[in-house]
């Protein structure tokens, strides 16, 4: 995923399925300058970590 799309998803009120290492996650914040995103698993909002945006995958809608 590119930083622009990650930022669009994080700013959108609609829920978009995004995966990190096969796990559904929520994008909290995107730092477009360094290509990093703060994320957490959907089932554990307290488990926040930073990852590279290019390691995120948007799950295609059906």
TrEMBL record:
Question: What is one GO biological process annotated to this record?
Answer: sporulation resulting in formation of a cellular spore
Residues of the signal peptide: none
Say yes or no: keyword Repressor present: no
The record, for InterPro entries, names: SASP_SspH
Matching entries from Pfam families are given as:
SspH (PF08141)
UniProt-annotated location(s):
Spore core
Q: Which domain of life is it from?
A: Bacteria
Description of what induces expression: Expressed only in the forespore compartment of sporulating cells.
Which keywords accompany this UniProt record?
Sporulation
Q: Which family is this sequence assigned to?
A: Belongs to the SspH family.
Q: What is this protein called?
A: Small, acid-soluble spore protein H
Q: Source species, please?
A: Halalkalibacter akibai (strain ATCC 43226 / DSM 21942 / CIP 109018 / JCM 9157 / 1139) (Bacillus akibai)
Q: What taxonomic classification does the UniProt entry list for its organism?
A: Bacteria, Bacillati, Bacillota, Bacilli, Bacillales
């Amino acid at each position: 995923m590119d930083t622009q799309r990650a930022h669009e998803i994080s700013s959108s009120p609609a829920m978009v399925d995004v995966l990190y290492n096969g796990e559904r996650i929520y994008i909290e914040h995107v730092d477009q300058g360094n290509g990093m995103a703060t994320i957490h698993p959907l089932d554990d909002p307290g488990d926040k970590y930073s990852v590279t945006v290019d390691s995120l995958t948007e799950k295609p809608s059906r």
